[in-house]
Amino acid sequence: MGDVDSSQYGCLVVSCSELSPSEPLVRGILGSDHDPDREAALNEVKSCTWNLNTKYYTAKVPMHWCDEPYRPDDKLLLPYIHGLVLYCNTKQIDGSLERASEWLSHCNEAQVILMVIRTTHDRVEEEEEPVELQNWCLKHQCELVSWHDDKGIQRIQEALSAHPWPQLQQHSPAREEGIEAEGGDHLTSFEELFTHFSELKEKAEGLTGEERRNFAEKVAMQFWKACGGDDDEISGLVDDD
């Protein structure tokens, strides 16, 4: 593809049935902080920006969605699609799979491929997940996601967020050097440190001797930095790691 702007790599949500319009699914994926109408283009493929913010990176990912079958005009967009979400309807299995196959055959760069079906129960009934869908997903190495409530949306978000987007920006080293709380969360701001103070105190009480001293020094330094203190002002007061 030659030199390309990495910011163009994004997701495409496709409705494979007129009974399952794509926009409600897009709204669920984007969450309440995004309004897909705000940047939607006045054509068959609509677009907006998904501001991804994970524990490890941030990324502005173009989000596209379409309710129409594949058209040759769409081929200019498809080389930049790394995430493909095929929204099917179990009441129109044959038509849904036919349209899904057509889109998939043109999305050669897609690295995350999900087939989503709307279900009416938390426990997916056999008739809601027909064997034809399961076989199609196995054949095309595609994950089948049942969308009943927030769990289905969360799974879609997790799968797309796990992809190493070319335009991602990793969090600064300062975030990674913070105090680690229970659960592996890194604490760097004063508010985070203060909120978890009792947890840090309990962790220190579980240490002995030199370990407790080193941990206390690290906590004190982190509080100092969070309050805007300069490293040079406390240089030599504590041992370097």
Automatic annotation (TrEMBL):
Signal peptide: none annotated. InterPro entries: Alpha/Gamma-adaptin-bd_p34. Gene3D superfamilies: 3.40.50.11960. This is Alpha-and gamma-adaptin-binding protein p34.
